[in-house]
Specification:
This protein is mainly alpha-helical. The chain has one domain.
Length: 303
């Protein structure tokens, strides 16, 4: 069954990226906040369901204890949603998936860990790919400055990198919170419940922030009409469903499941090409291929 859940997770998260992109309309100023609200409320519902049925002995002090990690993940997603309004999903998703490589570099710098030659090669591939994409963003037909203006083009292209960096920081902090139950600052956790406790804390925090965003938009006079949020809600449901299947995918054969799931950026690229009709130049596809190859090599080594 692990293979079924692995493939399901990969496809569902790829589908989530597709609907995130559809919901992040360039002409909708607060689209990124509206997506965050949809994700926050769906995750909140899932967190409440877990609390009622999961028997994880949750202590609400963990909301504050785990807040630094939750904030990293939520902030990174908000940056991602903003960038989606202006950047093709085919470009932004592979860049965002470099968060794993950034986290590896952080462990080397701050924890003194060592990485093998193949891992270094993979990271170099990713860097070359990103530099190539960045160069092509400012040349010829892909010059985004002509469409958005110099300032907005720079901000938009920076968003996937903001996601990758902040998400990597969240993953790095998770090493401290989740690596060892004995040293974890989380309260009332066991080997069996620690990941559920952390995830529930994250989802509840997202729910609270979603309420804050909703109040902010209400003050600004921005309407949040549910019938018009279909794509955003579908994306949120896919995101949360993917989290659910991910647990089962990793529970039995995580060493094989992890590299397969990391190919979600490939699924996202294909879905964007098919359903969103995103067209890139062959040079962009070449550099994206380098990025994705680096990500998959790292994922296999991780496994």
């Amino acid at each position: 069954m692990w293979l079924f859940f692995t493939l399901a997770t990969t496809f569902i998260w790829g589908l989530a990226e597709l609907f995130y992109k559809k919901g992040a309309r360039p002409d909708e100023k607060y689209a990124h906040l509206k997506i965050s609200v949809a994700v926050g409320f769906v995750m909140g519902i899932h967190a409440i369901f877990t609390l009622l049925t999961g028997q994880i002995g949750y202590d609400f002090k963990n909301l504050l204890i785990y807040f630094p990690v939750s904030l990293c993940y939520i902030a990174s997603m908000a940056f991602s949603f903003f960038g989606m309004r202006f950047i093709e999903e085919s470009i932004s998703d592979p860049i965002e998936n470099t968060s794993g490589a950034i986290c590896s570099v952080m462990t080397v710098i701050f924890l003194g860990e060592t990485i093998g030659h193949l891992s270094i090669f993979a990271i170099v591939l990713i860097v070359i790919g990103i530099l190539g994409i960045g160069f092509l963003e400012n040349t010829g037909s892909t010059d985004r400055k002509k469409i958005l203006g110099k300032k907005m083009a720079a901000i938009a292209f920076a968003m996937p990198f903001c996601y990758a960096t902040i998400d990597a920081l969240g993953s790095f902090l998770d090493i401290y919170y989740l690596d060892d139950v004995a040293t974890s600052p989380l309260i009332n956790v066991t080997e069996e419940t620690i990941e559920n406790v952390a995830n529930t804390s994250y989802e509840l925090t997202f729910f609270v922030i979603a309420i804050v965003f909703l109040i902010f938009m209400k003050i600004k006079g921005v309407k949040y009409e549910l019938p018009k949020q279909r794509d955003k809600i579908i994306a949120a449901l896919c995101e949360t469903t993917g989290q659910f299947t991910y647990v089962f995918a990793m529970s039995d054969n995580g060493a094989i499941a992890a590299p397969i799931i990391s190919s979600v950026c490939v699924v996202s690229l294909l879905l964007s090409r098919i359903f969103l009709k995103e067209k890139l130049t062959w040079k962009q596809y070449f550099f994206l291929f380098l990025v994705i190859s680096g990500i998959l090599i790292l994922a296999i080594i991780e496994g």
